[in-house]
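Protocol step 4 of 5: obtain the predicted structure for the target chain.
Materials: sequence only (see below). No template structures provided, no constraints applied. The aim of this step is simply to have a reference model before the mutagenesis design in step 5. Sequence pasted as it appears in the construct record:
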Amino acid sequence: MQLYLIRHPTPKVAEGVCYGRTNLPLMHEVAAAAARIRPQLPQHLPLYTSPLQRCRQLAEALHPAPLSDPRVQEMNFGIWEMQPWDTVSREALNGWASDPLGFVPPQGESVGQLQSRVLDFVADICGLGLEAAVLVTHAGVMKAIVGQVRKLPPKQWMALKFEYESVVCVDIADPETATGACSGTRCC
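Step 4 output (C-alpha cells):
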C-alpha cells in the first residue's frame, strides 16, 4: 500500500514552545496549502486525519469526507504542553534523552506509546486492502511510520525532519515488516 503522509501547515504558536496534543489553530488560512498539496496526490483516495484542527482543516480542504482517527494525533507531552522548552527541567530532559522510547513526561505519553498506537493504525488500514491512502498528520507520527518502513533504529527515526505541508510517500508492503520506502516532496 502506498501511504501519502502530509504534515499539517504551520500552527499558531510561539517559537520554542512545547506542543503536541494541544489543539492549536493554524497560522494562515488553509486554502493556499491545499492548493499546493492537491497536485501531489492521486485523486479519489481515502483520506485519514488527526482530529486536531491543524490537521483536520487541511484534510477537509483536500477531501469531501476525511476520516478522523485519534491514533494519529501528535504525542501527548502532558504538563510540558504549551510550556517553553527552556522551562522544562534539565533533569527531565536528560531522563528523556537517556530513554527516548520509554520516558513519559508527567501526565503524558512516551515516544514508544506514540509509536505503538501509530503502527496499530497503519496495520488497520493495511488490513483494508487499499492500494493507496492519504494521511494528514504530525511530524511525530510521520517519524514513527517512516522509521518503521525504513527499519531505522529509534535514535535515527526520531531525528527525522519533516517540514510543514510536506508530502512524503511510503510503500508499506506489510505493516509488521515494512519494506521499500522513499521520501521527498512526492516519491511514489
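Step 4 remarks: Residues 111-126 form the longest helix (16 residues). The CA atoms of residues 48 and 135 lie 5 Å apart.
Proceed to step 5.
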